[in-house]
Specification:
Oligomer: single chain
Strand content: over 45%
Number of helices: 0
Distance between the termini: 40 Å
Largest sheet: 7 strands, mixed
Shape: globular
Helix content: under 10%
Number of strands: 11
Length: 118
Amino acid sequence: QVQLVESGGGSVQAGDSLRLSCEVSGRSFSSYVMGWFRQAPGKEREFVATSWSGGSTHTADSVKGRFTISRDNAKNTVYLQMNSLKPEDTAVYYCAARSLSVVTWSFWGQGTQVTVSS
C-alpha cells in the first residue's frame, strides 16, 4: 500500500515562501510520476506541477517562475518550493503519485493547508 504524507503548509504573508514536502511509502518511488495539485474553497482541484522519474518537470502557467517541484529519490520525497506567494495561492495542496504507464493519479495524500494573507 502506497501512502503519501504532506507537510509544510501554514499561514504566511503575501510575498513569503513555503516549502511543502510529500513523503511516499513504498519501494517504487523513483519510478513514480509525482504531482502537486491544489484546491481553493469553492473551486475545482487544479494541477500545479509534475515531476517525472527521469528528472523532467512541468509547472502550471499560474505558478511558473514562483513554484518549483523537485524530488529526492533517496528520501522518497517530493517537494514544492513556493516563492512570492499571493493570496490567490491559498488552497489545500495535495501531492499525488502514479505509475508512468497510467494516466490517472492512483495515490493521493491527505492535503496540507496553505493560507496567504495580504
